[in-house]
Each structure stands twice: as structure tokens, then as C-alpha cells.
Sequence to fold (392 residues):
Amino acid sequence: MNFNKINNRKNTNSIKWDGHEKMNVPQDCLPMWVADMDFQTVPQVIEALTSLAQRGIYGYEFESNEYFQSVIGWMQRRHQWNIKKEWISTTPGVVSAIHACLMAFTQPGDAVMIQKPVYHPFSNSINRLNRKLINNALVEKDGHYGIDFENFENLIMQNHVKMFILCSPHNPVGRVWTEEELTRMADLCIRHQVLIVSDEIHMDFVFKPHRHHVLAGLKDHYQEHVITLTASSKTFNLAGLKLSNTIISNPALKRKYDAVYDDLSVHAGHTFGLVATQAAYDHGDRYVDEMVEYLHDNLQMTDAFFKEHCPKIKIIQPQGLYLIWVDFRGLGLKQRDLKEFLLKKAKLWLNDGVVFGKEGEGFQRINIAAPKTTIEKALNQLLSALKEENLC
Fold:
């Protein structure tokens, strides 16, 4: 794959590239916010979708046995996790799957725990469904985020927490949780009868020497207490095809989960997503290996740029993801002023840190899944604006 290739996405109804007016963002701002990549997907995915499109008939379809085998093969091959066909439920996306989990396994007023700063649909889903949000905030020290385990358990006991939504790897701080951290969280949850929903959509983006551990695969009995959310959408840039996989080995939990989608009548569809995911998982190994290397190069280039030209700005060194969590607190700007500076002076459209919780104040999330020339353009725009405002 040529990840240096510039793919013009303007005038394609792209939320990222054509969403300025809807989002009230100046038209001349370079978008580096929402989590989709500016890389083309695996060639075999394009071929499979083209072949499907040429059929001319797009009726109702179910998941083929070959589809399930592709998912099973990817999880075993890439993550050493052995799963079964009957554990897999296809869904329209991870965010809708989180909603379904909340609807199936909690009631209004029940306590649900998350770890901010975290992917904001977690909070949105909990609040919209009138559950009680409990925050075991991550602890940042010397550019590294960790877990306050004493607070983790106390919050569970004090609030009678029913569900814990884990983000692994963590978006936006880029932590790839260690086996020890994962087992400690899981053991505490199981001890206090807390159901774990593990969002592992970024499982394929991990930088060496770190390794992603599928939580449900760490101990045999975990699989009875963990619901795992996965998708090919981030890995292969297929978000618009609306397909994810929820993996549940506990039959009773799976029945309750599937019943939510049955009640909503969204249990069939996503034909193009099935075909694309199957092709991606069958043919995408080399693509992912090369892409992760390219992303790591982008990360190193960005980090070196800040260290050389503006050390007041610091990257929280990610262990995975193509989204970097950047600390702008050294500039001494209030959050509103920082956002205005980036949009109006640097002409950059980033994710404002407070979207992920008040813990994100002074931070921005930046998408580096783009050709190097795009990254360089963004960095140079930022540097020029910093110099003009005497901030660096």
C-alpha cells in the first residue's frame, strides 16, 4: 500500500472533509479530528465490493459461514483468541452495541462506570438512557496514564455498579493495558458482580513492544462475564458500511443482547459491510502490519517536531491507536482560547479535549492517520500560528 498517496475526499459527503458548515467550523480548517483514516482500504475489499455492486440486486442477506470463519480466523491469528461462530452477533456499530448492552443489562437509575477522559459516546449513551454515570478517572502522572484501583473498587461498592464499560486500547489517551491491569480490573468486577462491556475496536493498532490482550481471552471464566465489542471499521477504514461484531460466549447474556436488536428490528442488513469485513479479515494482515509501521513513523515525526520547535506542547506517548492525545497546557491558554487559536489562527480542526471529560482540559486529540505531507502541513500551520502569537 502507498500510504503517502493523497486521496482527495472533498465533495464526497465526508463528515471529516465536508462537515465544516454543519459543525460550524471555518471552511479553511484542515480536518484532523474524527476517527477515520485518509488511507484507501485493502485492494481485495474494493474488489469484493465492486463485484457485489455489479450484481444489481441488494436484497436481505444473512451472515455466511465464510463470514464467521473470517472473523474467527482474524481473532485467532492476530490476537490468539479462540472464539466460536455462535458467540458472534453482527450489529450496526460499536456505539449502537453499547446502547444495546445498556438496554439489555441495566435499568434506569443503575450505575455504570467508565474511565474518563474517554470516548464521549460512552457518557452520551449512559446519560441518554438515564443510567447513573460513575467515573473512575484515569490518573495522569509525568505523561503516563494509569488506573486508581482503590478508587475503582470503592466506586463499585459505594454505587452498586451494575456495568463497567472498558475502553481497550484506550481512546483517547493511547494506553494499551497490560495483562496485570486487565486482570485486576476484571477480578474486581467479577468479585462484585459487575458485567464488563469491553470496547476493543482499536485492538489492531498497537505499537511494538506493546501487545493488545483481549480481556475475555485472559482467563477461561472471564468469557462468562465479558461482552467484547469489535469491528473492522477502524482497522480498514470501513466506518460508513455500518457493521461491527459483538462477541458473547455466555448464552444467557447473548439471548438478552440479541433480543434488544430483534425488538428494534435491526437484526438484518449491512450486506456491503459483511462482504467488506470478510475480505478485509481474509486479506488484510500485511496491510495492517504496514499501516501500523507508517502510523508509528507519523507519531515519531510529530513528536520530534514538537520537541524541536515547541517543547511546551507534549504528546502523551501512545502505545497504540492512530489518535494522539496532545498536552497544550504549557501554552498557558484557557480551553476556549486554545480552541479558538487552533481554529482561527492555526486553521486546524482537532478534537477538543473536554469532549472526553473535564479531565481533558488543556488537551486536544489529533488524528495522524493521513499521508505524511498532510501531517507536515498541519504542523507547519501550527508552528506559524504559534510564532505569530508569541506562544512558542
Q: What stands out?
A: The mean pLDDT is 96.
